[in-house]
Amino acid sequence: MTKELRGTPTHIDAPAEQVWALLTDFASFPRWNPFIRRASGQLVRGQKISVELRLYGKTLVPFKPKVTMVEPPRELRWFAQMGAPGVFDVERFFILEPEAGGGCTFRQGEDCSGFLAGPMLASGLEKRILHGYELLNQALKRRAEAAQGSSSEFQTERN
To answer: What is the pTM of this model?
Structure first.
């Protein structure tokens, strides 16, 4: 059985290309991303990356997902397994949908499966993940819209 977790779609008043640049700038995450506190590695299909989520207060939860899709500036997906295949498997996605007028809608979610998925999510993990999505949505929106208002600031942050 697969459990689908979905964040609230978030409108961002910035072009998808600009939001994508922020979302994939792993080095900047500690400065602005309250949910995915650290990430490193190359966003190349088939490559493993390192990710640390803040799910339990100050404690970071590390994992090493494999990148399964990279389609700039539209979609990023990765797949992680806890333990052996079928124990707790997660396919995570980030989608940017351009809108008329230059903004975009940001969507994120994950599909969880495996025999421990139900019990782990029911233990409070689902609530923590969904809360993390909302924190990330709002932080990404603030950062992208602030950068949109000052493209020179955005360029400085990227260099």
So the answer is: 0.90
